[in-house]
Amino acid sequence: MPKERGKSVYDCDICGKSFSVKVNLATHKFTHTGEKPHHCDICEQKLYQYDICGKSFSQNCHITKHKLTHTREKPYHCDICSKSLIRRSATLTHTGEKPYHCDICGKSFSMRVNLAKHKLTHTGEKPYQCDICDKSFARRSAVTVHKRIHTGDKPYHCDICGKSFSNCSGLTCHRRIHTGEKPYHCDICGKSFSMKFNLDTHKLTHTGEKPYQCDICGKSFSRNGALAKHRHTHTGKKPYQCDICGKLFSLKGNLTTHKLIHTGEKPYQCDICGKSFSVRVNLVTHKVIHTGEKPYQCDICGKSFTQRSTVTIHKRIHTGEKPYHCDICSKSFSRCGYLVTHKLTHTGDKPYQCDICGKSFSRNGDLAKHKHTHTGEKPHQCDICGKSFSLQCNLSKHRLTHTGEKPYQCDICGKSFSRNSDLATHKFTHTGEKPYSCDICGKSFTHRSAVTVHKRTHTGEKPYQCDICDKSFSQSGDLSTHRFIHTGEKPYHCDICGKSFTLKVVLTKHKRTHTGEKPYHCDICSKSFIQKGQLSRHKGIHSGVKSHHCDTCGESFSVKAKLTNHKRTHTGEKPYHCDICSKSFIQKGHLSRHKGVHSGMKSHHCDTCGESFSVKAKLTNHKLTHTGEKPYHCDICGESFSEIDHWTTHRLIH
């Protein structure tokens, strides 16, 4: 029996909770017995026997509220805007009034029940326990929703698309996808949201508040979900396992997203272009392509982004922070995705397989790129010039060629780049770092893609095929260049002399003939060169190393290009053809010199005597007559020559 005290306070003899009214004690006891004596006379169902909703209730007032969901009656009206509402408590939420205050932290609430729930965050009390797995909760309703994980029960159904949900709030939020309703408004910037949680998170961008702190390292976060993700970097715990392939995940949401790879389901569709996505956040990100909105800004450099997470990652460029550490080799990374990809270099795991040719990849992005080699699809089109690309990232890079924007600057030499990846690669020229190694021969490279291309020299793989002549190439860029042979297109024009080129890199090199720039310097003799390849060839003079051998006659060369040209003397191949007289040549330079015969133009002038030449190489050789220099030496007898042709002829004597 309950104990009655002097001030008419009634205590529960099971849990000790006190009540001022006896009937409230009686109602409370139903929470212990599980009894729900009030049934809905519209749906007329017992507990958990679903027909329309199948709900039973422990309190009479709840049955009254419930009936309104069937009748859709909204008896309460806002006296400011006349909006109709199902519950009286909803009027407080609607007006923004929060009359209930927490006496511990001062936080305010529109409903007394929410204040009571909030107070449990201070006490840590979790009085409601699941009788299946013993997990505890601060609220009774949370236990009810939690149990549906065990039962699979989803009693709330969308009357538009039929999708089912385990809780009412999930259905309410889902319906807003159909209606477009965004009832929660930021009183600072006016932005609207479909969920209150999203509004609360958004407001932290104005205040800078980070109320969620990691109890291990002290790092703070604006969202509880971000703290939960961060904690897994300490524990390494991955409690969620895919029942199809066995892969483990640290977050349940990541497991749910992963499962869509197996089902192929893409339930989120863009209402503008019709494109579908497996994850809602990807749809939200995609829609920004249509709106152009970039609401998240870096407070250091002012750059704007479409996603908050991208700002966080971007800031690490400024701070140098690399919070993700490999537990095998201790290498650190600025992004979780980079760490995941890096770990595959230790395991050799390639979980993404092409369903056309069976080839496997360590990254899903690499598989996506590979598939375009089969389909030839280029769905991303530039709205300025109409050029199409197979990947959105390539379109984004291309657009910078129109704007000329170079937002990424090297803090060592000040050079600017249009892409962050180009800046990262450039920085290796200062540090000398080559972090990516070939696991076959050990050769190192400044970026991962170079390793991928290099490995094809071992495997002989040439995945890019010309659809006109069927010639195959190891690099996508080589195929693009090759196609210009068929089209005759030369899209890159010199703004000084008007000459056109098939490749941008050739245009860049050409412009140096106007500017006189020679950015590649020999660290032995300080001689400078326009092209990196020229420097590499020159260095062979100092080293004397001839690592490229002809497998026909055994002759060795210091530069691979010279070996290639030499081999043509055996095969008789002359791939460079004059389009005027059809004469063919072994080397491209020979064709260029030959064309001067047809044009009669002599654009290369000696600044000593004024004599003109049609080919720059002839001017170079001519200048040696003034200086007396003879740079070509016979390594057998020591005789020197001013021209390479004379040196070549001389060697035939030996």
UniProtKB/TrEMBL annotation:
It holds the Pfam family zf-C2H2. InterPro entries: Znf_C2H2_sf (IPR036236), Znf_C2H2_type (IPR013087). May be involved in transcriptional regulation. It comes from Octopus vulgaris. Keywords: DNA-binding, Isopeptide bond, Metal-binding, Nucleus, Repeat, Transcription, Transcription regulation, Ubl conjugation, Zinc, Zinc-finger. One of its GO terms (biological process) is positive regulation of DNA-templated transcription. GO terms for cellular component: chromosome; nucleus. Residues 10-37, 48-75, 100-127, 128-155, 156-183, 184-211, 212-239, 240-267, 268-295, 296-323, 324-351, 352-379, 380-407, 408-435, 436-463, 464-491, 492-519, 520-547, 548-575, 576-603, 604-631, 632-654 form the C2H2-type domain. GO terms for molecular function: DNA-binding transcription factor activity, RNA polymerase II-specific; RNA polymerase II cis-regulatory region sequence-specific DNA binding; zinc ion binding. Belongs to the krueppel C2H2-type zinc-finger protein family. This is Finger OZF-like isoform X1. The keyword Zinc-finger applies. It comes from the Eukaryota. It is found in: Nucleus.
